Amino acid sequence: MKKGIYISIIVLATLQLFSCKTDSKNNKSLIKEITFTKEGKLFLFDLKDSIPNLITKLDIEIADDEYQIQTGLMYRESMSNNQGMLFIFPEETPRSFYMKNH
Known about the structure:
Layout: H1 2-20, H2 24-30, E1 40-46, E2 53-63, H3 66-71, E3 83-87
Parallel strand pairs: 2-3
Antiparallel strand pairs: 1-2
């Protein structure tokens, strides 16, 4: 009985190792690159002086649903310096982000 349990555990552990293994060369061919879609503009101002000073203008893509928020900027080969993603959440709270494939 115990021998069968040990064999099952070894088989499951082996399957888990191979199923989680990723090869970045093969992975890129399976996932289609996501291209930037401009959905708005974001203006950043310096408000130190009495007259607002424009720092930069960004073309933005909006992530406002669960899939877009989870995917974020993954699977992008490149983006221009004036492009970014604006994440929309229902409540204000500190958040952390992880870019899986970069």
